[in-house]
Amino acid sequence: MLDQIKGLHHVTSMAADARTNNNFFTDTLGLRRVKKTVNFDSPDVYHLYYGDETGSAGTVMTYFPFPDIGRGRPGTGEVGTTVFSVPQGSIGFWQDRLSQKGATGLKTEETFGEKRLNFAGPDGDGFALVEVRDDSRAPWTHGGVSEDHAIRGFHSVAMRLRDEGATADLLKYMGYEALETKDGVTRLIVPGGNGAGLIDLETMPNIQRGLQGAGSVHHVAFAVDNREKQLEVRKALMDTGYHVTPVIDRDYFWAIYFRTPGGVLFEIATNEPGFDRDEDTAHLGQALKLPQQHKHLRPILEQQLQKLDN
């Protein structure tokens, strides 16, 4: 069993409109945009990152806004819900705020003994807020939400699977432990993690496979401290029979990817070097940053990419 993984690093999804996506995360949810860059493979498409003040591992939601992409079809083989941690007693505030901001799909419930508010993003994305006692992570408080209510980072992700068995075994090999199973959902946790240590597995044997599009999660990334730990994980996964990509430099972290038995794309990402490698902390996410191989395209991209409101 591995011990290098510390919880979630980031979750990457797809959207249909960059400005709408940016406004939802920075205004409605009050997160900080910590990086404005482009898709490595499609530089005419933004890659937008939102999180806490510095983009700490376990807080960062990222998006590829492909203009006019069709809406995804929810189903199995994907992350169905991305869940954020908020302070105890704040669900009422968020229900009012999200309603006033025009969010849809609002529903309160209690799961695993936690108060929860489900809601949809602009592209039908599955989101939830869960009240967590004593989440010590510092929130971003310059986005219009006070410290008493502000998002602390990820609480968990929920994966929809036709059969959880092989994926649960993989997560246990990655260092996760089973906590509880209730109403067809198995909850796992990585001990001593970064605050974003929970994974829920939802078994849905009669649901069709999801088709990716706007509102779909493209992949979920798990955090390791550094490249040395990442290489240890890569070797262990390959020795176990997984097909893992070579290490890829993503400018702000190094990444490896592999497909899970249940169909979800996993990434293992390093906490280094971080989002301040090319911008100081006070100005994160303000300037358009381009990967080295796309820097020659700056004049074209600055004309083509949709202007954001803030």
UniProtKB/TrEMBL annotation:
<dbReference type="InterPro" id="IPR037523">
    <property type="entry name" value="VOC_core"/>
</dbReference>
<feature type="domain" description="VOC">
    <location>
        <begin position="153"/>
        <end position="271"/>
    </location>
</feature>
<dbReference type="InterPro" id="IPR052537">
    <property type="entry name" value="Extradiol_RC_dioxygenase"/>
</dbReference>
<dbReference type="InterPro" id="IPR004360">
    <property type="entry name" value="Glyas_Fos-R_dOase_dom"/>
</dbReference>
<dbReference type="InterPro" id="IPR029068">
    <property type="entry name" value="Glyas_Bleomycin-R_OHBP_Dase"/>
</dbReference>
<feature type="domain" description="VOC">
    <location>
        <begin position="7"/>
        <end position="132"/>
    </location>
</feature>
<dbReference type="Pfam" id="PF00903">
    <property type="entry name" value="Glyoxalase"/>
</dbReference>
<protein>
    <submittedName>
        <fullName>Glyoxalase family protein</fullName>
    </submittedName>
</protein>
